[in-house]
């Protein structure tokens, strides 16, 4: 009796452990390379460009604001009523040296401001242009030298922080 055996099917060969390790390492290297390339690409675009000192524009120093105490003055009046002005000022200065000069001569500066304000009429101060004109006038008064032979005080701007006319 002859027996016939059916041909046996060979089981698919599973990759050996060495092939799996090589495949995993290869995928890890590709992922690390892609991540490194992405980081380099994005970081190189944001890197600051070196500019020579001659080409760089000069950065101006931040302004220094010097608040003055509020002042109340009687205003000139043609109608016989008492009118008052309560004003708060802040001076915009260029440097700390100017602030020290103002502090040293503050009684004189306040006196000039009070004398100038007491000669104003309420009608002059009501419109916006009157306030702008007053700011310019006060700037001129404050920058005048307090002593002979002394450089004028440099005030960049006079800012109103309080302005009430009654």
TrEMBL record:
Keyword Transmembrane included in the entry's annotation: yes
InterPro entries from the entry? FliL
Ranges annotated as spanning the membrane = 21-43
What are the record keywords, sorted? Cell inner membrane, Cell membrane, Cell projection, Chemotaxis, Cilium, Flagellar rotation, Flagellum, Membrane, Transmembrane, Transmembrane helix
Q: Which organism is it from?
A: Paraburkholderia atlantica
Q: Which family does it belong to?
A: Belongs to the FliL family.
Q: What is this protein called?
A: Flagellar protein FliL
Membrane topology note: Single-pass membrane protein
- Name the GO cellular-component terms: bacterial-type flagellum basal body; plasma membrane
| Pfam families in alphabetical order | FliL (PF03748)
Q: Where in the cell is it found?
A: Cell inner membrane; Cell membrane
Q: What does this protein do?
A: Controls the rotational direction of flagella during chemotaxis.
Alphabetically, which GO biological process terms does the record hold? bacterial-type flagellum-dependent swarming motility; chemotaxis
The keyword Transmembrane appears for this protein: yes
